[in-house]
Amino acid sequence: TLPKCTLASLFLYVLSKQLASKLAMSQGFLLAAEQPSQRQEQQELHDIVRQEHHGYTRQQGGGPTLSVYGHKRKITLIPLVFLIYFEVAGGPYGAEKAVLAAGPLFTLLGFLVFPFAWGVPESLITAELAAAFPGNGGFVLWADHAFGPLAGFLLGMWKYLSIVINIAAYTALIADYLGGSGVAPAVAQPGGARTGAVIGMTLLLSFVNYAGVSIVGWGAVALGMVSLAPFVLMTAMAVPKVRPSRWASQVKGDKDWRLFFNTLFWNLNYWDCASTMAGEVERPEQTFPRALALAVVLIAGSYLLPLMAATGAIDAPPDAWVNGYLADAAGHHR
């Protein structure tokens, strides 16, 4: 049986489609009852409002693209790659429980196959629709255009709630890594230090977002370099110690496939979130496909290579792989 939350979402989705179709039918009857000149004037006004609402733009010549509000689009290829990277992954943090659930071999296969089996189709859809609807709002605009304003509102609200709950986990995960690595042991356990660290990180990231999209874009590039550097170093140091036979280590008891696939999905989801900044991307019809293609390769490599190095270089059993264990694994290579 489906969970209650899934049934509720399905019910609201069907309801929104029915209401949207009824609204469209009502609007059609009203237009049919009007004079031709009135229908033409209303259609022209309707097109103008939709263009302003969706942020559609037309690029003239080879100059920089402008948004509907007249400001220059600021996000270029490299910042967009790293913005997508942080929307989807942000590094191999949180991948440890896949090893705990199914062992190293299935984890490596999962992070090799899943970015391409799931990420490539979703990124292609995102690239196509972001180029067709190059305005801020992304998937909300798609739903609004396809099913009407009610569907767009519901999708936006559900996505907002999902992201708020999801992002709340990241600051706690960072605290786990800081505590497990020995940098700040006090934040590893519940208490004032951990609470203060979580609040501080939340305020810092909120301020960065408030500073503007240009700063966020290049800030993502800098943060991406910083977050990937330890894993690049760890992978390089681990290569001489890697023994492929360690990848065949088995978990005790039955494999937890539910935890395994949930971990893969949680770490490799949200490709469509990049579409919400399409109105700020320079030449989105060219930039989005390239950025998404580069992001797929970057994300797959950022998970696969550190996990291959860590699981192949140390003899830790799969049940040792809890959140933050990659920091412990890096300590074994010093």
UniProtKB/TrEMBL annotation:
Keywords: Cell membrane, Membrane, Signal, Symport, Transmembrane, Transmembrane helix, Transport. GO terms for molecular function: polyamine transmembrane transporter activity; symporter activity. The chain crosses the membrane at residues 75-91, 98-118, 157-179, 218-239, 291-314. The keyword Cytoplasm does not apply. It is a multi-pass membrane protein. One of its GO terms (cellular component) is plasma membrane. Pfam families: AA_permease_2 (PF13520). Its main location: membrane. Residues 1-20 form the signal peptide. It comes from the Eukaryota. It is found in: Cell membrane. Belongs to the amino acid-polyamine-organocation (APC) superfamily. Polyamine:cation symporter (PHS) (TC 2.A.3.12) family. This is Amino acid permease/ SLC12A domain-containing protein.
